């Protein structure tokens, strides 16, 4: 379903009674129903409706997402390291750090080598620039089978 901004923009362009806008709404409605059906079929095909192995699949998905976001942060941080602090690359690195931290939240209590938690290690790696903590979270991703997602 389109967001309010798009609908507002269309209202400004076509007006509230314009034929083109009504046609836009009809075309949009025709596209939404098949897309929604496709999402339901895709979710059903992945087994998200099944309780069998659902927790393990969910955990694997969370780990993969975390490792993907961690790798994106590493890449953005490395790119920003060669550019002046005022550049947009530093802003991208900051956003990537936030995304990695958010992806870590459901996994924060998972154990990482040395008796620490993933939450602690991620915080030290991202916020404090602790290279040893970063190595431990990369090892966590390696142990989870997602080593190729990190740098």
Explained architecture:
The chain is mainly alpha-helical. The protein has helices spanning 4-14, 19-46, 54-80, 88-104, 118-128, 131-144; strands at 111-112, 116-117. The protein has a two-stranded antiparallel ribbon. Helix 4 (88-104) packs antiparallel against helix 5 and helix 5 packs across helix 6. The longest helix is centred in the first third of the chain and has 28 residues, at 19-46. 21% of the residues are buried.
Task: Quickly describe the structure.
The protein has 151 residues and is mostly helical.
Top keywords for this entry?
151 residues; mainly alpha; two-stranded antiparallel ribbon; 6 helices; 72% helix; disordered N terminus
Order of helices and strands: HHHHEEHH
Q: Which geometry do the CA atoms define?
A: globular
Which structural class is indicated by helix and strand composition? mainly alpha
User: Helicity, in percent?
Assistant: over 70%
Query: Measured on Cα atoms, how large is the radius of gyration?
Result: 21 Å
Question: What is the arithmetic mean of pLDDT?
Answer: 75
Oligomeric form: single chain
Number of strands: 2
With strands numbered from the N-terminus, the spatial order across the biggest sheet is: 1-2
**N-to-C CA distance:** 36 Å
Main sheet?
2 strands, antiparallel
Which spans have pLDDT < 50 for at least 5 consecutive residues? 1-5, 24-51
Strand content: under 5%
Total of helices:
6
